[in-house]
């Protein structure tokens, strides 16, 4: 029997930057080899503050490849329905925990009270409005009930000697998983342009709130590493170069 007290419900996501080699100056040498050849080596430790104009021009003109000479690795914990969306971003490298090789932990996502519940508008342009207290209660109760029942089934099958890869089929998409994802700034800008909702974007996107929570945390880390590029991205309508 599953001890329901051992089941954890969370309403957040974890995003930690575990490795990075990402500086605004990385953009400079990559861009300047075009006109300076070997002299671009002088830009390897260049002062990006003094070259703000160049970085802004590259973003605005969508000269994207100079933004690829850097790397950021994030550790992410999020529900599997978020990973289904995250893994669509192909210009990235991923490694995820396995439901075949380890017993999945009883950690499930349940929307927090600040999660808007009711959808209005048309596909591709939804607006969300807060639900009533009854709707929030219903979502929480139903999610918790299903997760507890599903995890109990999973445990019963494991105890009966069924393989993890078979027993896991009863688990809901709201169960948490964990992965590492490595991206460069160009790819991250594409991800942020699509997975954050910003009305001031040149091309506003309407992502699911839970992947936006992941995106917002990645954005905060990247902004610290490459502030000049980050400012240029925002200034130019959050379009990936
Ligand atoms: C709001 C929203 C709703 C969505 N709804 C759906 C949906 O209903 N169904 C669905 O299936 N998907 C949906 N998606 C996923 C979407 O179609 C993309 O798969 C996802 O956003 C990844 O974007 P990407 O291809 O630009 O990223 P990446 O895969 O990281 O690619 C980055 C860039 O590389 C280039 N590139 C990569 N691979 C190729 C290739 N094979 N050929 C040519 N160029 C390539 C493209 O320029 C691309 O923009 C949705 C996404 C968003 C943001």
Automatic annotation (TrEMBL):
Record InterPro entries: Thymidylate_synthase_ThyX, Thymidylate_synthase_ThyX_sf
Active site: 195 (involved in ionization of n3 of dump, leading to its activation)
Binding-site residues, dUMP: 85-88, 96-100, 168, 195
One Pfam family named in its UniProt record: Thy1
Alphabetic keyword roster: FAD, Flavoprotein, Methyltransferase, NADP, Nucleotide biosynthesis, Transferase
Subunit and interaction comment: Homotetramer.
UniProt binding sites for FAD: 65, 88-90, 96, 184-186, 190
Enzyme Commission numbers on file: 2.1.1.148
Gene3D superfamilies in the cross-refs: 3.30.1360.170
Protein's UniProt name: Flavin-dependent thymidylate synthase
Cofactor binding, note field: Binds 4 FAD per tetramer. Each FAD binding site is formed by three monomers.
Catalytic reaction annotation: dUMP + (6R)-5,10-methylene-5,6,7,8-tetrahydrofolate + NADPH + H(+) = dTMP + (6S)-5,6,7,8-tetrahydrofolate + NADP(+)
Cofactor(s) demanded: FAD
GO molecular function, one term: thymidylate synthase (FAD) activity
Pathway info: Pyrimidine metabolism; dTTP biosynthesis
HAMAP family per record: ThyX (MF_01408)
Enzyme class: transferase
GO BP terms in the entry: methylation
Membership in a protein family: Belongs to the thymidylate synthase ThyX family.
Biological function: Catalyzes the reductive methylation of 2'-deoxyuridine-5'-monophosphate (dUMP) to 2'-deoxythymidine-5'-monophosphate (dTMP) while utilizing 5,10-methylenetetrahydrofolate (mTHF) as the methyl donor, and NADPH and FADH(2) as the reductant.
């Amino acid at each position: 029997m599953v001890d329901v007290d051992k089941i954890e419900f969370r309403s957040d996501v974890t995003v930690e930057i575990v490795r990075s080699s990402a500086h605004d100056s990385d953009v400079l040498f990559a861009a300047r080899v075009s006109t300076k050849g070997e002299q671009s080596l002088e830009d390897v430790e260049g002062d990006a503050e003094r070259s703000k104009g160049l970085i802004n021009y590259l973003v605005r003109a969508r000269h994207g490849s100079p933004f690829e000479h850097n790397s950021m690795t994030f550790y992410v914990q999020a529900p599997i329905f978020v990973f289904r969306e995250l893994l669509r971003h192909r210009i990235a490298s991923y490694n995820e925990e396995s439901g075949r090789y380890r017993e999945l932990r009883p950690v499930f996502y349940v929307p927090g009270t600040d999660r808007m519940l009711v959808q209005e508008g048309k596909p591709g342009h939804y607006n969300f409005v807060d639900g009533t207290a009854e709707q929030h209660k219903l979502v929480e109760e139903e999610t918790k009930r299903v997760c507890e029942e599903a995890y109990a089934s999973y445990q019963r099958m494991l105890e009966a000697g069924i393989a993890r890869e078979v027993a896991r089929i009863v688990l809901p998409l709201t169960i948490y998983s964990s992965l590492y994802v490595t991206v460069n700034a160009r790819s991250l800008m594409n991800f942020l342009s699509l997975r954050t909702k910003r009305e001031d974007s040149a091309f506003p996107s309407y992502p699911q709130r839970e992947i936006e929570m992941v995106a917002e945390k990645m954005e905060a880390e990247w902004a610290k590493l490459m502030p000049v590029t980050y400012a240029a991205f925002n200034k130019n309508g959050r379009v990936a170069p």
